[in-house]
Write a structure and sequence with these properties.
The chain is mainly α and about 70 residues long. It has 3 helices and no strands. Helices cover about 70% and strands about 0% of the residues.
């Protein structure tokens, strides 16, 4: 089941501002990343490799930040 995502346009609000709020809302909820992730089938081995690479990047970044604070 899915729900439609939307924002209500206020009386004194321009379309561009409402569109900006909508894009920010979609980014915050992770809708676009979920759609991009499910556009094509990813083999389980490729998913493991991608997640492992992301974990390595995150650990390296955290280690660099930790060393900088010392």
């Amino acid at each position: 089941m899915f729900t439609l995502t939307g924002v209500y346009v206020k009386d004194d609000e321009s379309f561009e501002k409402a569109l900006r709020r909508f894009n920010k809302f979609c980014e915050k909820t992770g809708i676009l990343t979920d759609i991009k992730k499910n556009q094509y089938f990813e083999k389980p081995s490729d998913a493991r490799k991608r997640k492992l690479a992301a974990a390595k990047r995150k650990a390296r970044r955290n280690r660099m930040l930790f060393e900088r604070n010392i």
